[in-house]
Specification:
alpha+beta; Uridine Diphospho-n-acetylenolpyruvylglucosamine Reductase, domain 3; Uridine Diphospho-n-acetylenolpyruvylglucosamine Reductase, domain 1; five-stranded antiparallel β-sheet; about 25% helix
Length: about 300
Amino acid sequence: MKPPTNIQENRAMGDLTWFRSGGLARFYLAPSSEEELIEAVKWAQREEVPFHLMGLGANSLFPDDGYPGLILHMYKFRQRGDFYRNCSPSVVEVDAGINLENLVKKLNEAGLGGFEGFVGIPGTVGGSVWGNAGAQNSSLGDRVEALKILDSRGEAEWVNGNQISWKYRSSGLGNRVVLAARFAIEPDQDPEELKNRSAAFLRYKKSVQPYDDKSTGCIFKNPGAGLSAGQLIDDLNLKGLCEGGAQVSDLHGNFIVNAEQTATTADVLALVSKVQKKVYEEEGVRLEREVIIVGEDSK
């Protein structure tokens, strides 16, 4: 099949994902407008081509043998220079392609509170909302007033935040595409205080996480009941455990790093299995993987 002229074929993905592993995407597009995105989604649906949305690739692993569908890379989607638009004194609207870290900075500078704890989360707003990213005992879903989404028919609509099935690190949106989000914010805050809070949160994050290493962020979800995946792994002395070029971080047990940038996705998955097996054998706890494997649901 011949794709539209704006869609690339056989695009190498290893340099576009945070972990730096993976093969080729059969089709690839970085849409910059709603119209371009909708056209690509409708083409994929018409041709029965699977598609996967990617923000900054910070919580995703790309298969070593590639992906047979269309990657929609949302990092520049509708970025027109404005990081947010004021809907009211306490609500802002943000396009899906905006970098979350940049949004935190801009809101802090404007004295708009509520996002200072999300500093240091690498991702786009759309991807972070889709995965209900969180920090400091808060999740983005807690702040969502409404989402503009592209449904399975390729139609755009606004959905109230309370209609979304928010769960720990999940929005339940499935294959629906986030186009924009409206967030509740706290106006009239002291910008310097907000910036200081973010700086303190970021310092702490860098002290306990491999912030500057190539990783996929937290590899496992916390299992609940007050248990921490990282603490379980630490307690079993699994820091430093390796498989090929992949290694459990020496700093935080719930991170797998590609320190030498030689790891494959297969290395990561083999190491994940080793850790899951050990934790289950020793603690009776089944760790669920948090990182997304691109195309996993379509195979």
